[in-house]
Amino acid sequence: MALTETPRTVEYTCQQCGWTGEFDARFAPWCMAQDHYLITKDEQQKSATLKKRERRRQDTARRRGEALQERLLQADDLRPGGAARLAAVSFGLAIHTLTLLIFIGAVAALLSGLWPLYIVALLGFGIAWVVRPRFGKRPGSGWIKRGKAPKLFAILDRIGEATGAPTPKYVSFDGRFNAGTARRGVRNEPVLTLGAPLWQVLAGDERLALLGHELGHQVNGDTTQSVLVASAHRSLGEWRVLFYPSTHGRRVSRGTAGFGQLLLPVVLFPFYLLMTGLQRFYGWLQVHVSLRAEFLADDIAAQTASTNAALALVRKLDTRSSVEVYMARARTAHPTFRKAPSLEDAMEMWIGLEDYIQTIPEHEYIRAARISEYRGTQIDSSHPADYLRARLLKGRPPRGGTVTVTEDEWLSVDLELASYVAEAGRAILLRR
Questions:
Q1: Which residues form the Peptidase M48 domain (predicted)?
Q2: CA–CA separation, 98 vs 130, rounded Å?
Q3: Based on the domain organization, do 100 and 193 belong to the same domain?
Q4: Residue 23: enclosing H or E segment and its boundaries?
């Protein structure tokens, strides 16, 4: 399964400014001197055809992110402010208190002894069940425990000791070009999820920065990711569904019942507006808590591995589109209609990915970073754009790193994780 290609360098002359230089023939030419042809016509047309609402949302997110990054350049402490964290806790308490009041009201109606109130009690119990707080399931057998990967957990212990973060109890690999940390189960245990494609393209110091960033989320003051607030946000989504004022797709009855159906959206609309307002307030919390906490997690990554390693990690994140193209080609190249992919096929794919990443030229990283800046790319609303993360890391005092991991240690980690990474790759090859 040969998925890598041999680069072919050609000479290119910019028609706008006359700049001449060598260029990899696999990529669309652009002028590195003036960014000519960097933003293609397709990219510009795509931006121009966005709906006004979507363009306004993107512009607002860009302005907020850039303003926050500029403020943090001058800040002594990157931790989210106490007022914003208090607002997040108040948001969580308000949502769950409403659910508790409905449950108490349903119990009171049930104990009243009046049979008409039994219907009210049944309705109240149903609503309380739908919007109840939900906790992530406790990790099962597919997760990696300390005894299965002692080398990896030894590195996590050292990072936790350096940052003050708790060591994850469980680790897992999936097929995303991403990583994440959370707390799961009733015991609120920290867990770590690593995307196998991202893990495979990172070098040792970049992996260390990634682990420092993710463990940093456990101590960066992001109250929006706490059990209280995160579960409240999920409950709020259920509230909005319940109060959505629409009869679309429903058959309207005749007579009094039909009038009631038409009147119901009017009655629900004020409650829907209230829930929408709370949803927007949560968006405000993400800007003042989550985005700032992400910047702090980057700072913790620099403290763990060094500023240069954290910048290298952000740079590798810009290869997302290239990696996704590679994975799509890998799935197409494997004949799954004849036989199911084996673990050996998956490891061959990962080896090919590592070779492929090495062939990406420097100017392509520059182009990807500048396109990211043009788009204001964010993974989601709680993550700042990569170019802002790089700016802040460069603008803050440089860090040397407090944790070191040798190449032999990383080799030992790769050996003990090989079967889990291969299984994640096999799942990617099976995906259609």
A1: 161-395
A2: 13
A3: yes
A4: strand 20-24
